[in-house]
Every structure is written in C-alpha cells, then in structure tokens.
UniProtKB/TrEMBL annotation:
PROSITE patterns hit by this protein: P_GLUCOSE_ISOMERASE_1 (PS00765), P_GLUCOSE_ISOMERASE_3 (PS51463)
Source organism of the structure: Natrialba hulunbeirensis JCM 10989
Secretion signal span: none
Function: Catalyzes the reversible isomerization of glucose-6-phosphate to fructose-6-phosphate.
Localisation per UniProt entry: Cytoplasm
GO molecular function: carbohydrate derivative binding; glucose-6-phosphate isomerase activity; monosaccharide binding
CDD domains xrefs: SIS_PGI_1 (cd05015), SIS_PGI_2 (cd05016)
The protein's name: Probable glucose-6-phosphate isomerase
Protein family according to the UniProt entry: Belongs to the GPI family.
Residues annotated as catalytic: E275 (proton donor), H296, K407
InterPro entries recorded: G6P_Isomerase (IPR001672), Phosphoglucose_isomerase_CS (IPR018189), SIS_dom_sf (IPR046348), SIS_PGI_1 (IPR035476), SIS_PGI_2 (IPR035482)
Top enzyme class: isomerase
Length: 435
C-alpha cells in the first residue's frame, strides 16, 4: 500500500502536523520499530502476528478445506465473531465473484436474521466453517448448535461438511476429536483481530478458491517495508500520522474506502483499531464509512462539524469498469461521456479536496487494485500501523480485558453462574420516557 499524508500537514489542516513534529515523531517511530522487531524476532504475543506471512502454511489450509469442499459447493457458513469472523469476511467480501460460493458470516445471535439466512441455503452443498480460538465464545457456540440442528433436521450429515479452526484445547477441539473433523489451529501469540492472514481468516478464502499464497506474498512485500522511519514505511507513516492527529484533537478516524468490495475491510479495521488502542482512557474511535455512498450521509459532518476527525481514504488505482449510457437529460449529459469508474474516482478526489479546502485532515491509502496481493498488503500494512500506534500510545495493544465484563454479565443473566456483573444489570438507573 502507498500512503499520502500531505493533507494531514499543519499547512493544510487543523488539527494538522507540522513537518518539525513529524521529524520528532520519527525519532519515536525508530525506537518503536526496534521494539517491534525484537517482539517479532522473539515471537512475542501479539508481535507474532507480523510473522504470519512466513509462518502461515497455505498447503495445510487448502488440504483441510478440500476435505469439505467439492465442485458442487454453493456456500460456506462461517460461524465465529470478532477477529474470528471479520478477517475472513474482509477477504471473501473483497475477492468473491458471482461464480464463487456464497460466503456467509454468522457473527451475531439475532434469531430472525439467522433463521432467514439458514432457510435460503441448500445445506447439502453448504460448508460450515467454525472458528473460535477459545472455543467458548457464547455467540459462536450457540450459533454452531443451531446450525448443526438445522443440518440434522434437513437430514444432511454436518460432519462431512464442517471444518473447525480453534485452539489446542477446549469444546471445539473436543468436537473435532469426537467426529474426526478437518481442523486447523489458531496460531499461538496472534490475537483474533490480527489473525486474518492465518487459518482463521483464510479457510473461507480457500473454500471460495482464492489464491492464499498471493495474499501472503502481498503481506510479505508489506513486511519488507517495515523500517525505522515513517518517511520510508507506508504502514508506519499511517500509524504515526493517525496517532499524532489524535494527540492534536482528531479522536475519530473515519475509514472510508472507495470500493464496495472493501466495505467489510472498514469493519475489520474498526475492530483492529478500537480493540487494540482503546485502553487507559486513550484510543482513536474508528468509524466505518464507504465512498461514494457516505458523501451523502456523513460528509457534511466531516467537513463542517467538530474538528475532531481524521478521514482515511482507501483508493484502488484500477478495477473493472462500466460505461454510463448516454442520456438526453440535458443536465446529466456530461455523465454519458464517463464511466462509473471515472465517476467514482472523480468523487473520491473531489471529496478528498473538499476536506482539504475546509482544513479537515485526511490521509490517502492507495492500492493498485482489489486482488489477493494488494489485499494482503493492505491487511498487513494496517496491522503494522496499529502495532506502531500502540507503541506510540504506550498501551497494551494485544489484550482486550474490557470485553470480559459484559461476557460475565451475559453468562450470569442466563444462569451460567454467579456474577456480580449480572447483578449490576438489574440495578440499572432508569429515567423512562414512554410513548
Ligand atoms: O476466537 P474467540 O475465542 O471465539 O474470540 C472471538 C472474539 O471475542 C473476544 O471477546 C474478543 O473481543 C475478540 O478479540 C475475539 O476475536
């Protein structure tokens, strides 16, 4: 990926970063890079994620996926949540074409939605991809039990169509052993939100026939750019700029890719950025946005609201295109001379310039196209940017203790044990205004 931080400079934006400040931050980047390199060399928890390009065994993933996939495979249901779903969804949503199996992600426990999703599938030709490091995540286990029941009710042998990616032990590992299911391991030392470039994120891509090696080659090429300076490393330039803008008041980061196929990538980025950096009352709030669509919903706030946002654009240099037919509507005749791709590019450049004209900081992330190599580089680049930002914030980038309170409360509310968190739910302060 390439990064252009010109519109984040103090000469353009407020908040903005002076060139002197960038030079000073670059000294911190050099120190942070040494820490990151040491963590990678030692295979330390979290830093190990940046070793995935050479660690992930794509043959192993393909072999396991091939045990449940055939030419008749029409769909793959991934049952997982958070990092155990968003990386895989980012890859298949970015790469799947009309002829690929449909990739569905059951990463919520909404009964109406899940029932409607299952009802429209041909379970005979559907693969089930269960992903959970712990094997105890309530949403994932509940959804798996419902999916398994749906297969059994349809008289379809789920064991012939189910692949599991989980830790070395736990309920899902027991299920694998009991039914001799094809399985893969969640890599040690890699938090879920950093695991897209491992079996966690790549089984669905394998079932859908994508080039896993190209994903890793793109990631490896990005890994090669990790040097000790933000002026030489796009990932570090992005991470340092986002951090520095937050320190100057831009506490919100709207991730706005100009490609429909990257909409889920913005959701993946939101977990990566929020769950890694949101600690000790610090962290930059990610907002999922999409170009050109959100020019018509959020741009007003980005351009004329509080000066508390960075807008991050992701633009693909090339892609499939389509002519806009001629029209006799006078005011729209100019569109007939353009293609949809030219319109999308013009809207991106116009929106980028409109924010700069209003002194609103924005950064451009460029990829050549949305394919395996470029996507692997984007995922890896943003992971490295996040690790660097975590070093600059001085937070524990790789843990997420704050998510545990609600889990305990949920378990307590369902009779899964005595938890004071559940009692706190009952003590809610109310001020109800009813219709
Ligand atoms: O993979 P699992 O153990 O099922 O965890 C799934 C997700 O839930 C956790 O609560 C964390 O918030 C995520 O970082 C994680 O990816």
């Amino acid at each position: 990926m390439n990064v252009d931080i010109g519109n984040a400079l103090a000469s353009v934006a407020s908040p903005g970063i002076s060139r002197e400040a960038l030079e000073s931050i670059d000294d911190q980047v050099a120190v942070a890079h040494e820490r990151i390199e040491a963590g990678m060399d030692a295979g330390e928890h979290g830093y190990e994620a940046l070793n995935l390009p050479e660690r992930t065994d794509t043959d192993e993933i393909r072999l396991a996926a091939d045990r449940v996939t055939g030419p008749e495979t029409s769909a793959i249901i991934t049952v997982g949540i958070g990092g155990s779903a968003l990386g895989a969804a980012t890859i298949t949503d970015a790469l799947n074409g009309a002829d690929d199996p449909e990739a569905i992600y059951l990463d919520n426990v909404d009964p109406e939605w899940l029932t409607s999703e299952l009802a429209r599938l041909d379970l005979e030709t559907t693969v089930v991809n269960v992903v959970s490091r712990s094997g105890t995540t309530a949403e994932t286990l509940a959804n798996f039990l419902v999916v398994r029941e749906a297969f059994e009710s349809a008289g379809v042998d789920w064991t012939e169509r189910t692949i599991v990616t989980t830790g070395e032990s736990g309920p899902l590992r027991d299920l694998v052993d009991r039914h001799d299911l094809p399985s893969l391991e969640v890599p040690d030392g890699v938090p879920g939100r950093f695991s897209a470039l491992s079996a966690v994120g790549m089984v669905a891509a394998a079932v859908c026939g994508h080039d896993l090696d190209a994903l890793l080659e793109g990631a490896a090429a990005e890994a090669e750019t990790l040097t000790g300076s933000l002026f030489e490393c796009p990932a570090y330039a992005y991470g340092a700029t986002a951090y520095a803008l937050d320190a100057r008041g831009a506490g919100i980061n709207a991730m706005m890719p100009y490609a429909e196929s990257l909409e889920t990538y913005a959701e993946w980025f939101a977990q990566l950025w929020a769950e890694s950096l949101g600690k000790d009352d610090l962290g930059q709030t990610p907002v999922r946005a999409l170009g050109a669509t959100d020019q018509h919903s959020q741009l007003q706030l980005y351009r004329a609201g509080p000066r508390d946002k960075l807008v991050t654009f992701v633009s693909a240099e090339e892609g499939a295109d389509r002519e806009i037919p001629d029209t006799d509507v006078d005011d729209l005749a100019y569109l007939g001379d353009a293609t949809l791709g030219e319109l999308l590019d013009a809207e991106f450049e116009a929106t980028e310039a409109s924010l700069a004209a209003a002194g609103r900081p924005n950064v451009r992330v460029e990829i050549e196209r949305v394919d395996e190599f470029e996507l692997g580089g984007l995922l890896y680049g943003m992971e490295a940017a996040c690790v660097l930002a975590g070093e600059l914030y001085g937070v524990n980038t790789f843990e997420q203790p704050a998510v545990e309170w609600a889990k305990k409360a949920t378990r307590g509310l369902l009779g899964g044990g005595e938890f004071e968190e559940a009692e706190a739910v009952a003590e809610k302060t109310e001020l109800r205004i009813e219709r």
